[in-house]
Amino acid sequence: MGVVRAAAGRFQVFVDGSNLTKEKEHYYLVWPDMKLNTTQFETRYAIGVRAKY
After folding, report:
1. What number is the average pLDDT over the span 30-43?
2. How distant, in Å, are the alpha carbons of 6, 12, 25 from that of 48?
3. Most Cβ neighbours (<10 Å): which of 4, 16, 39, 47?
4. Three-state SS annotation for 4-53
5. Sign (positive/negative) of CA torsion 28, 29, 31, 35?
């Protein structure tokens, strides 16, 4: 989930959040019964400014 807002044309302010509900991520090969991996990460947030020169 993320939000980007353009400011003055060359700059962007952004806010991003990952895994806000702390769910486990399940990875499968082809079918749901062919489980490959499960990972669980903490909630992550990022706030910043991007600039184009």
Report:
1. 85
2. 12, 8, 26
3. 16
4. EEEECCCEEEEEEEECCCCCCEEEECCCCCCEEEEECCCCEEEEEEEECC
5. negative
- pLDDT surpasses 90 at 47: yes
The residue with tokens 């400011």 is 7
Structure tokens at 20: 């806000």
Q: What pLDDT was estimated at residue 46?
A: 93
Is the whole model's pTM more than 0.85, yes or no? no
* Residue type for position 27: Y
Residue 16's Cα: distance from chain center in Å? 7
Phi, psi of 2 (to 5 degrees): -155, 160
Indicate the pLDDT class of residue 22, thresholds 50, 70 and 90. Answer: confident
